[in-house]
Amino acid sequence: MSALLAIDLGTESARVAVYAADGHRLGQGESGYPTDFPRPGWAEQDPEDWWRAVVAATRAALDVAGRPDIDGVAVATTASTVTVLDRAGRPLRPALLWMDGRAAAEAARTAEVDHPVLRYAGGSDAVEWLVPKAMWLARREPDVYRAAAHVTEAVDYLVWRLTGEWTGSRMNAVCKWNYDPRGAGFPEDLYAELGVPDLRGKLPGRVAPVGDPVGTVHANARAELGITGRAVVSSGGIDAHLSLLAVGGAGEGRVSIVCGTSNAFVTEMTEPVFPPTVWGPYPDALNDGRWLVEGGQVAAGSVLRWTGERLLGRPRSELPELIAAAAAVPPAGHGLLVLDYFMGNRTPLRDPRLRGAVLGLTVGSTPEQVYRAAVEGVAYGTRQVLDSFEEGGVPVQKVLVSGGIRHNPLWLQTTADVLGRPLRLVAGDNLSLRACSVIAAVGAGHHPSLGAAAAEFAPETRTVAPDASRRDAYEAGYADYRAATAATREVSHRLSAPAPERAP
């Protein structure tokens, strides 16, 4: 029996699954790694830890699956997690994690440049993306940057560990490197204007569309992972963006929201629109001839985890009890408001220096009220993103949600209530892994196209309907959320400034 291997490198762990050729999961493994937060707003990991975790998770998944031969392999990772490597692929410094916000000044600089490719990014690069991070390295760690032979994303690093090939995903290149697949390709003139004229030489030499074969797993990696079979590695990409392949395929007005540590919103369009409140539209990022649009909340499940475990001091085993108690609190009737900008705002405000807040606290406020307000604040942030889609001309007709939200019934129902629209909850499987199985099946020749494989592997969903009786309360709460965002912006910017920049 031949099978497919799917690798998903997340924020906290590597998850690996083995799938049969028909999309049935045969086995899964997981292994974690630490994150270092050397300064407020910074986040780093060791790429060697990723590989060790991938090896452990792959071996565990293969053991459960009965060690079948592997026909195809694909990798998904978080976007904008940037590695800095020497010619032998050894890390010169820790990787800058996707949530790392140190390059705020560099991202702001991209907004001052007039270059046609920036039209695909809403007029500027976000603080998380590879180009601002490369600019920061060139300015703040010039010796490390000069020594770097490779500045890549996590997905490129894992593909190299698997195959020995430095090949970039076209999805990541278009969405995060200002690569123009319909024009000049790499915008070397833009890189030069931004102070990194040699960046092109540090990026992967080849850029491959999602689903295209890159190479086979080489002998050393086969031995470490315990893989047998053809093991054709195909070009993957960004975990959340690939989710469109795991919900039956892309379609006009079909929005996938992957709800976890952060919330990622993705959809595809046949004709582009260019509002400044979204990321994109990106041409040919996933499917040829279509335009991908992205939005995001940089902190979502992480806000709820911080509220429950760190602020309220509840161990993870007691969180279900806290969630149930918070569900009994009347919606928006507790006098509290939480702003979800704990790591800034991705879209629509594109402001990495916004900060979270809990407003309305009294000595009578209860843990249940605080937690409920945090859930509502995250849901208000979700609505803000979807509202910006529709206001910018991006159709939103069907919303599919997946990820960690399915384990938190209060978060799930509150999101439906605040949005005032039904949600389609994707049951069971990790969407990034399922999307990788789609990609691996295409690269191995099991299906002729991504669309055909996506339709074949489509998961089951169930509808979560909004409670109409809560509409007025949440309309008022959302209005307060928008007003409080505007009112606290100036203070947030002062508080989030590096210490020497703060006014006395």
Automatic annotation (TrEMBL):
The answer, when asked if Zinc-finger is one of the entry's keywords, is no
* Domain named Carbohydrate kinase FGGY C-terminal: residues: 256-430
What keywords are assigned to this protein?
Answer: Arabinose catabolism, ATP-binding, Carbohydrate metabolism, Kinase, Nucleotide-binding, Transferase
Q: Which residues form the signal peptide?
A: none
Give residue ranges for domain Carbohydrate kinase FGGY N-terminal: 4-245
Pfam families, A to Z? FGGY_C, FGGY_N
Protein's recorded name: Ribulokinase
Give the originating organism.
Answer: Marinactinospora rubrisoli
